[in-house]
Amino acid sequence: MGLSGKEGLQLCSSDPFFLVDECLSKHIAKALKLVGYNVGSVEDVFPGRRGRPVTDEEIIDWLGRQRLGVWVTADHSARRQRREQLLFWRVSAIWVKWPKRGMTARRQHRLLSYVIDPISEEVRASHEPVYFLAYYNGDRPSRMKV
Protein backbone atom coordinates (compact mmCIF):
# COMPACT_ATOMS: atom_id res chain seq x y z
CA MET A 1 0.00 0.00 0.00
CA GLY A 2 0.93 3.63 -0.27
CA LEU A 3 2.26 5.99 2.32
CA SER A 4 0.13 8.13 4.53
CA GLY A 5 2.13 11.08 5.68
CA LYS A 6 5.77 10.00 5.30
CA GLU A 7 8.56 11.42 3.12
CA GLY A 8 7.23 14.98 3.18
CA LEU A 9 3.73 14.24 1.87
CA GLN A 10 1.30 16.68 3.47
CA LEU A 11 -1.88 14.64 3.48
CA CYS A 12 -3.51 16.53 6.35
CA SER A 13 -3.41 19.85 4.55
CA SER A 14 -6.63 21.60 3.58
CA ASP A 15 -5.14 21.94 0.10
CA PRO A 16 -5.85 19.19 -2.41
CA PHE A 17 -3.11 16.58 -2.75
CA PHE A 18 -1.95 16.34 -6.37
CA LEU A 19 -0.54 12.95 -7.34
CA VAL A 20 1.52 13.15 -10.53
CA ASP A 21 1.59 9.79 -12.27
CA GLU A 22 4.23 8.17 -14.45
CA CYS A 23 2.89 9.65 -17.69
CA LEU A 24 4.60 12.92 -16.75
CA SER A 25 8.20 13.71 -15.89
CA LYS A 26 9.23 12.37 -12.49
CA HIS A 27 10.80 15.77 -11.76
CA ILE A 28 7.51 17.70 -11.94
CA ALA A 29 6.24 16.67 -8.51
CA LYS A 30 9.60 17.48 -6.91
CA ALA A 31 9.71 20.92 -8.51
CA LEU A 32 6.15 21.79 -7.49
CA LYS A 33 6.75 20.52 -3.96
CA LEU A 34 9.87 22.71 -3.67
CA VAL A 35 7.76 25.83 -4.16
CA GLY A 36 5.15 24.76 -1.61
CA TYR A 37 2.48 22.79 -3.46
CA ASN A 38 0.88 19.76 -1.81
CA VAL A 39 2.04 17.33 -4.49
CA GLY A 40 3.75 13.98 -4.77
CA SER A 41 4.78 11.50 -7.41
CA VAL A 42 3.86 7.85 -7.80
CA GLU A 43 7.41 7.10 -6.60
CA ASP A 44 6.67 9.02 -3.36
CA VAL A 45 3.42 7.23 -2.68
CA PHE A 46 4.33 3.74 -3.91
CA PRO A 47 8.05 3.35 -3.11
CA GLY A 48 10.03 0.22 -3.81
CA ARG A 49 8.13 -0.96 -6.87
CA ARG A 50 11.43 -1.87 -8.61
CA GLY A 51 10.29 -1.11 -12.13
CA ARG A 52 6.78 -2.49 -11.72
CA PRO A 53 4.35 0.16 -12.90
CA VAL A 54 1.59 1.39 -10.62
CA THR A 55 -1.84 0.78 -12.13
CA ASP A 56 -4.52 3.41 -12.59
CA GLU A 57 -6.70 1.39 -10.21
CA GLU A 58 -4.07 1.57 -7.45
CA ILE A 59 -3.63 5.32 -7.94
CA ILE A 60 -7.37 6.03 -7.85
CA ASP A 61 -7.96 3.76 -4.83
CA TRP A 62 -5.11 5.44 -2.93
CA LEU A 63 -6.31 8.94 -3.80
CA GLY A 64 -9.85 7.98 -2.87
CA ARG A 65 -8.69 7.26 0.66
CA GLN A 66 -7.21 10.76 0.96
CA ARG A 67 -9.16 13.95 1.33
CA LEU A 68 -9.24 16.11 -1.80
CA GLY A 69 -7.04 13.88 -3.94
CA VAL A 70 -6.33 14.98 -7.53
CA TRP A 71 -4.81 12.62 -10.10
CA VAL A 72 -2.51 14.38 -12.61
CA THR A 73 -2.01 12.29 -15.75
CA ALA A 74 -1.61 12.39 -19.51
CA ASP A 75 -3.50 9.07 -19.87
CA HIS A 76 -6.59 10.24 -21.73
CA SER A 77 -7.98 6.73 -22.19
CA ALA A 78 -8.47 6.65 -18.41
CA ARG A 79 -11.16 9.33 -18.73
CA ARG A 80 -13.47 6.66 -20.13
CA GLN A 81 -11.95 3.49 -18.72
CA ARG A 82 -11.76 4.66 -15.09
CA ARG A 83 -14.82 6.93 -14.98
CA GLU A 84 -16.84 4.76 -12.59
CA GLN A 85 -13.92 4.26 -10.24
CA LEU A 86 -13.13 7.99 -10.22
CA LEU A 87 -16.76 8.78 -9.39
CA PHE A 88 -16.99 6.03 -6.75
CA TRP A 89 -13.88 7.29 -4.93
CA ARG A 90 -14.73 10.97 -5.61
CA VAL A 91 -11.29 11.58 -7.08
CA SER A 92 -10.72 14.70 -9.17
CA ALA A 93 -8.32 14.66 -12.11
CA ILE A 94 -6.24 16.81 -14.43
CA TRP A 95 -5.61 15.36 -17.87
CA VAL A 96 -2.56 16.92 -19.49
CA LYS A 97 -2.89 17.20 -23.25
CA TRP A 98 0.36 16.71 -25.14
CA PRO A 99 1.05 18.79 -28.23
CA LYS A 100 1.83 16.73 -31.33
CA ARG A 101 5.51 17.61 -31.02
CA GLY A 102 5.64 16.37 -27.41
CA MET A 103 6.30 18.30 -24.24
CA THR A 104 9.53 18.76 -22.32
CA ALA A 105 9.65 18.54 -18.53
CA ARG A 106 10.13 22.32 -18.49
CA ARG A 107 6.90 22.88 -20.45
CA GLN A 108 5.05 20.36 -18.26
CA HIS A 109 6.19 22.30 -15.20
CA ARG A 110 5.18 25.63 -16.71
CA LEU A 111 1.73 24.28 -17.62
CA LEU A 112 1.03 22.77 -14.21
CA SER A 113 2.42 25.82 -12.39
CA TYR A 114 -0.08 27.95 -14.31
CA VAL A 115 -3.16 25.78 -13.71
CA ILE A 116 -2.61 24.34 -10.24
CA ASP A 117 -3.80 27.34 -8.16
CA PRO A 118 -7.17 27.89 -9.86
CA ILE A 119 -7.78 24.13 -10.03
CA SER A 120 -6.91 23.79 -6.34
CA GLU A 121 -9.49 26.46 -5.48
CA GLU A 122 -12.19 24.77 -7.57
CA VAL A 123 -11.48 21.35 -6.04
CA ARG A 124 -11.64 22.80 -2.52
CA ALA A 125 -14.92 24.60 -3.27
CA SER A 126 -16.63 21.64 -4.91
CA HIS A 127 -18.54 18.92 -3.10
CA GLU A 128 -18.15 16.63 -6.10
CA PRO A 129 -15.09 15.48 -8.04
CA VAL A 130 -14.06 17.88 -10.80
CA TYR A 131 -12.15 17.15 -13.99
CA PHE A 132 -9.89 19.39 -16.02
CA LEU A 133 -7.93 19.41 -19.22
CA ALA A 134 -4.59 21.26 -19.02
CA TYR A 135 -3.11 22.20 -22.39
CA TYR A 136 -1.25 24.80 -24.37
CA ASN A 137 -3.27 27.20 -26.47
CA GLY A 138 -0.49 28.23 -28.82
CA ASP A 139 2.26 29.07 -26.36
CA ARG A 140 -0.10 29.97 -23.52
CA PRO A 141 -0.91 27.46 -20.74
CA SER A 142 -4.66 26.92 -20.42
CA ARG A 143 -7.20 24.81 -18.59
CA MET A 144 -10.83 23.91 -19.00
CA LYS A 145 -13.33 21.91 -17.01
CA VAL A 146 -14.37 18.67 -18.75
Describe the structure.
It is built from 6 helices and 6 strands, in the order βαβααβααβαββ. By secondary structure, it is α/β, with parallel strands linked by helices. It has one domain. A 6-stranded mixed β-sheet has the order 2-1-3-4-5-6, with helices on both faces. Helix 1 (26-34) links the parallel strand 1 and strand 2 (39-41). It is globular, with a radius of gyration of 14 Å.
Sheet-strand content, in percent, reads 15-25%
Major β-sheet annotation: 6 strands, mixed
Oligomer: single chain
The proportion of residues forming helix, as a percent range, comes to 25-40%
Shape: globular
Strand order of the largest sheet: 2-1-3-4-5-6
Average predicted local confidence, pLDDT: 89
- The tally of helices reads 6
Rg result:
14 Å
- What is the ordering of alpha helices and beta strands? EHEHHEHHEHEE
In terms of topology, how is this protein built?
Elements: E1 17-20, H1 26-34, E2 39-41, H2 42-45, H3 56-64, E3 69-73, H4 78-81, H5 83-89, E4 92-96, H6 105-125, E5 131-137, E6 140-145
Parallel strand pairs: 1-2, 1-3, 3-4, 4-5
Antiparallel strand pairs: 5-6
Helix pairs in contact: 1-6, 3-5
